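Run: sequence + molybdenum atom -> complex structure.
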Amino acid sequence: MPDYTTACPRNCYSTCSMLVEVENGRVRRIEPHPGNRAAPGGLCLKGLSYAERIVSPDRLLRPLGRAPGVDGLHPVSWDEALERIASRLLDLRERHGPQSILYCSGSGTKGLLNAAGMHFWRLFGGCTTTYGDLCWPAGLEATRLTLGENKHSAPWDIVNARLIILWGKNPAETNIHQMRFIDQALERGAKLVVVDPRRTESSERAELLVQPRPGSDGALALGIAHLLCRNDRFHHEFVERHCLGFPEFSELVREYDPDHASRLTDVPARTIERLSGLLADTRPATLCAGFGMQRYTNSGQTMRAMIALLAITGNIGQPGSGWQFANLQSAVFDAVKDPLAFYPPEESDGVVRVSISTARIGQDMLATRDPELKMAWVERGNPITQNPETPAVLQAFRALEFRVVVDQFLTDTAREADIVLPAKSLFEQSDVIGAYWHSYIQLKQKILDPPPDVKPETEIYRLLAMKLGIRGEVLSQYFPGPADSEVEEWVERKLAPFPELTLARLREGPVPAPGNQEIAFSDFVFPTPSGKIELLSREAARRWDVDPLPRYTTPIEFTEQRQKKYPLHLITPNTKNRIHSQFGNLRMIRDVSEPLEVSISPVDAARCGIADGTLVRVFNDRGSLELPARLDFSLKPGCLSIPNGWWISEGGTVNFLSCGRETDMGHGAAFHDVLVEVEKAAR
Ligand SMILES: Nc1nc2c(c(=O)[nH]1)N[C@H]1C(S)=C(S)[C@@H](COP(=O)(O)OP(=O)(O)OC[C@H]3O[C@@H](n4cnc5c(=O)[nH]c(N)nc54)[C@H](O)[C@@H]3O)O[C@H]1N2
Ligand SMILES: Nc1nc2c(c(=O)[nH]1)N[C@H]1C(S)=C(S)[C@@H](COP(=O)(O)OP(=O)(O)OC[C@H]3O[C@@H](n4cnc5c(=O)[nH]c(N)nc54)[C@H](O)[C@@H]3O)O[C@H]1N2
Ligand SMILES: [Mo]
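>> structure
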């Protein structure tokens, strides 16, 4: 029985390599590929559920469309679907210009071919698109400004750490393979500290769990730095040689004495002292920064303050040490490492208008003029569920004349569409993918033909372009034909600049990215303007209008006045058995997953007269959500936690409550900058 090597293209740290056995056109078995040293041990349940996902009864297997006067979406032929889209495109281009069409893509799958969509819109004559990103740009930009580049040491290097700090990261759910390396480090005597308002599974073996007030992590980091400086426990030689702005930074942290930092963070002063003592005494230290504290309006500055802790203790460039946020060493093909990758609006080139903030997509769509938006094309994304401020996003989509959604399932966003086009699954087209935790480049190899009426996006674009009269080389350059050999030729052209990356080698398994550094910054080259680690960044000030030092500011929504009305912080973490809004519809996942609930501390539950299991209404002035309450004795009082990713059609998305607001740098989305109140539901 032939085993195929392929890889999982989800937006997830682990980016597992898989061996898949196929029998009579069906997936029989999915196993981990041992060549992936970061994730050798096994796939997660989501990976195993692909066997179900690709044949799920919910999967979209033919185009759907709306007919005038008839309710709902109904099957239409490809020819009719493409004909209707083409005539809309021509009509809108003629009447309002191509920029009346919004092209909106999400992070549902990775791949080089998957990124080909924008070429279609250029060939069409332009469009409007979004800038920024829902996921990580505040942290990426903070790291780039401070260290010069987004990279970190190989995942397995953490076993060399003596101190591991998981800060706003919950790998037991979001990066399960990292827990194996953390366990190995702990067995070798390392200490684990977790910083999270929740007591997560990742903190089970922690020496210390620090539970700051949400969004106050910047003040916590500056409080720790205060003690390191005051007690002369910083690394003089490292600071002297490699850091820019230490005198100014040490002046800044003078005001964050333990009592002041404690008032800002609600962390006891003695805990701040203990954490600072651990950092001073235990070397080498690795700090794994997750995304929790990266979803506020102060996140970029917060992340800069956190990196500073490693810089002033000399924990960069050696085995077992370092800042682990995003390891983009495998991003050799694309522009994500580029400082302008998130397209600030001034980068619009006249053809493609880049004017809509992903974080504010609803408000921006409604406000767009000259021309107004009339149509949207959504692919690989589920913005109605996943972008901030769902009420505004829904209103904006409903205000359009025409909507096209390309997806595998009838998501909340697809339900709003006029035409839904069925997307291929991961096994149905070859592509090349990178990762952001390890640095393997992988071939996501095709192992099955798509179902008869399903087409890869490149093929959808190719056929649509032909309907619009676009032909010839200009088309085949971007969109390979449907034959496997045409796709492979396209992939080989992309690989050509890298002799290490041949198709034959990638077929065998994962290959480390060319130029990969196992211990990041071991050459102490920091590609910042000064060539040093910038504790003081003039570029930060110039580009983002923030203090050049990582000064702490309170998240925008957390004003005293607003807290009187909405006293609770809402955090919306990820969960083990979903990737954002994906997988929740599968039986394999449903069978083992908990229902949607809001976790609440007994202190807040008592104030509101809520018991375990009470149906409650969580609300603010943007929206509300009804769901059962779960009393959580380990959650920090003053916080509510509801996982993100649930669909409106499953009981409601948390983004009814969030606000379309950007982070202080990088044009990210401040999902956690949200206050709410809770009460017993009326019914
Ligand atoms: N409140 C709150 N909201 C959040 C977050 C949070 O923490 N809190 N996290 C944010 C973050 S970090 C992220 S990354 C985003 C993720 O949000 P999105 O970028 O929207 O990603 P997903 O929900 O993973 O997937 C989107 C869609 O892609 C589809 N898809 C999968 N594969 C393919 C394919 O090959 N082709 C096509 N056309 N479609 C495909 C899936 O079926 C799914 O419907 O959510 C953000 N939203
Ligand atoms: N199973 C699974 N794995 C995933 C994903 C998924 O959806 N499911 N998504 C992938 C993607 S796209 C992403 S972005 C990553 C995210 O990976 P993680 O960063 O690990 O996940 P999050 O749940 O966003 O946040 C981590 C923790 O931050 C805490 N937190 C919230 N607010 C604060 C705060 O103010 N301060 C501190 N210190 N902590 C806070 C939350 O309680 C949570 O436990 O995971 C990736 N992996
Ligand atoms: Mo993300």
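>> summary
Residues 11, 135 surround molybdenum atom (ligand 3) (CB under 6 Å). The chain has four domains: 4-53, 76-132+344-512, 138-328, 560-680.
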